[in-house]
Amino acid sequence: MSITVKNLRYIYNKEMPGETVALDDVSFEISDGSILGVIGHTGSGKSTLLQHLNGLLKPESGDVFIDDVCITDGKTELVEIRRRVGLVFQYPEYQLFEETVAKDVAFGPRNLGLDDEEIKRRVKHALEIVGLDYEDVKDNSPFEHSGGNKRKIAIAGVLAMEPKVLILDEPTAGLDPKAHREILAMVRRIHDSTGCIIIFVSHNMADIASMADKVIVLNAGRIVLEGTPAQVFSHGEELAAMGLDVPPAREMTDKLSRLIPGFTSEALSITQAADDIRNFISSDK
User: Fold this and answer.
1) Strand order in 85-88's β-sheet?
2) 74 CB-near residues (< 8 Å, 6+ apart)
3) Is residue 274 part of a domain?
4) For every residue of 11-48, which 3-state class applies, written as one string?
5) pLDDT tens for residues 69-122?
6) What CATH number corresponds to the domain at position 84?
7) Domain range holding 205?
8) Whole-number Å distance between alpha carbons of 113 and 125
9) Cα(88)–Cα(126) distance, rounded to whole angstroms?
10) The whole model's pTM is what?
11) Domains identified in the chain, total number
């Protein structure tokens, strides 16, 4: 599985007052099994881009390929694409509606016309992946659960469709620290157990640094930086000019580098930063 985006352009309110170019010549590739982090200030084009990846929006120009299938040519059956590319919007728990957890997670698979045995298998497996026990929660109302568990249930509903690509738009937004950690662990578990491509949008730079294999930075509808987390977060001044931060560990070590002659570090985690500081102190003795 791969995703290729070529020269994507999208305009809101075309030829009307308030016309806005939301995406402008956006191109990138994602290979099988990768986790792509997407960052950018509010209004940079992130959500617009995500909605092109399963055909919810049609570009003004440019193409999106899922494997070798062009989904923007007007000929592709988008229902099949949306089975393969699962999109989880911000606060997906607001979309819960069924009377039990099992029924809510089963909604998508049931619409595929699957038999009851296959639906149950998918629901049970999806709940297990997100960290919930099927027997414990299947007959509960989804609305009885905590905010973090509601979000897991909503994500399980997408996973039950068994997508090859999972798009997560701010999956930790609004959660307390414990639920935040659980959702990150869940995303890693999804990736490890399914091997699917994950596209992960977040304003939390520490999360992006810890989760992503590759990062793209959007600004005013264009990709302005692209590379590994270490490569992207080495451009601290450029990111700051766009209203973006670097991970706290990198911010701290950058300050130390300016204050202490000879100290350098590319740490993106507090653990690595501590190791680099310890090694510097030891080498200076």
Assistant:
1) 85-88, 165-169, 197-201, 35-40, 214-219, 222-227
2) 58
3) no
4) EECCCCCCCEEEEEEEEEEECCCCEEEEEECCCCCHHH
5) 899 988 888 888 888 999 999 999 999 999 999 999 999 999 988 999 999 999
6) 3.40.50.300
7) 3-246
8) 18
9) 14
10) 0.91
11) 1
